Amino acid sequence: MSLHSLETMTTEEQKRQFLPLAQSFHITTAYAQTELGHGTDVQRLETEAVFDPTTDSFILNTPTLTSTKFWPGGLGRTVNHVLLMAQLYTPDRNHPCGLQMFLVQIRDLKTHEPLPGVETGVIGVHFAHTFGDNGYLRLKNVRIPRTQMLMKFDQVDEQGKFHNQSDARLLYGTLLHARIYLCESVTVALAQAITIAMRYSAVRFQGQNSNGNEIRILDYPLQQAKLIPCLSATYAFVITFMKLDNYFNELKTNEEIYLEQLPEIHALSSGFKAYTTLISERMAQVCRVACGGHGFLVGSGLVGIRNFLDAGCTAEGDNVVLLQETTRYLLKVMQEVEENNGKHIDSSVAYLSLPLWSSRTTMNLDDYCRVFESRSQLLIKEACNTMLELSSSPSSDEFLNNSIQLVHIANAHMETYLMRAFYEQVNKASQHPSISSILEQLFYVFAIHTLRNESADFIRFKLLSADQIYELETRTLPDMYSQLRPNLVALVDAFDFHDHELDSCLGRYDGQVYEALMERARLNPTNGHKVHPAWLSLKQGTLSTL
């Protein structure tokens, strides 16, 4: 994230000065934005950078307790610089110039001691990401040269005059970049979880059939009903991430188009991050439980994945706040659709101008996409009407009072987007029938499983009947499980994780799970003594008097 900022937020002269130092690790940087009192609400960050024209430098301060930078990875003990997000003030403090980014040295390059005016340390033990060296930072009258403000878009000259030469929204490119690539990390983690659970289920035997033969737990319909929806969601997330990443990279090549499409990419990245982290965290827990007692061992690999995904629900923006950002965009687009008859709206919401899907007995892949689009369209329109009943121009308070409904709308839109992305990928694979048929089966599982979980909407809007949903759940879904069963292990092997990456006794490629469990158990340090020293100490003390 820091390197990306140095590449995208600096002038050509600054790139020549700073990038080689960062790429060679002569300087190491943390991205210092989140504060003790403010995280998602970026505009209210309190750290200050005041320009002093007499010394051609900025004076940096964290003036309040809540302005303390808190959580940046690597800040605790590792990095010697930070990329600091701070409110810029020119000598006339009555006219703040908004948030800007500064490259700030915080430690001596030889001794690694904190510099004068710098207080930094580790924030303490947290639930996951224990390797992250997350830290805090306080600054008191720390001076940096004027040229260490990242000035690709905005500049301050020697006299202290602020020059705004671009759209302030460009500053948020780094945040979007981080959010999108967090989605990649989350998707990889879920892929690892389902790989471990699926491989273990293929080698674990439990119970017996009528012939007295033991049964692989992966052959139990209930185990398939746990794991195959997780597998289908993983493929949906991988496919959608690739689509979103390609779209974002295309936009970055043209600043004008990027700014034009920024509301859409902001809404998509916000919604996708919130949806993938929430669903992945839940599904990783399903994978852990599906592995029984062995899944509770740290050596299963699933505990660490589960904790990692839990942290993702609040990293790079709280999910509830991000979903509200997506909904604001959707409500605005729906108003434009109704006012302009659906002309010139973004591709991800083009369905809002389509006629509603009409129910039919047999549904193909496109029908599933259309029924999700119609559901999302009706939810958004309903919310628009609710808000307009309150006021022709709804206030933020009215928005907050309806936030439960609005968050649901954002999730519905993301399910629609995922469905369409998955469908497009199935069509692209049509030249390879053996691949496309399996992708189709995964698509049906993802669509029906999601539809079942959100069945109330489809029934309420009369898009599908309760009987239709029951038929899909009890007949179509189990049929898809049976068709996918021969390919389940191959579908997780396709993620191509090395055993070293999984670090799991249960997810070994060679299937030798019991040997791995025993080997790891024997390597436990407490097994180095036949009689533990603590027991001997206890025996000589308390037990000797009994």
Instruction: Give the CATH class of the largest domain.
Output: Mainly Alpha
Count up the domains. Answer: 2
Helix and strand element order: HHEEEEEEEEEEEHEEHHHHHHHHHHHHHH
Query: Which strand-content bin applies to the residues?
Result: 5-15%
The low-pLDDT segments are none
Helical segment count: 17
The average pLDDT score comes to: 90
Largest sheet: 6 strands, mixed
Number of strands: 13
C-alpha-based Rg, rounded: 27 Å
Return the CATH architecture of the largest domain.
Answer: Up-down Bundle
Helical/strand content category: alpha+beta
Domain Acyl-CoA oxidase C-terminal: 365-536
InterPro entries: ACOX_C_alpha1, Acyl-CoA_Oxase/DH_mid-dom_sf, Acyl-CoA_oxidase, Acyl-CoA_oxidase_C, AcylCo_DH-like_C, AcylCoA_DH/oxidase_NM_dom_sf
Catalytic activity: a 2,3-saturated acyl-CoA + O2 = a (2E)-enoyl-CoA + H2O2
Pathway: Lipid metabolism; peroxisomal fatty acid beta-oxidation
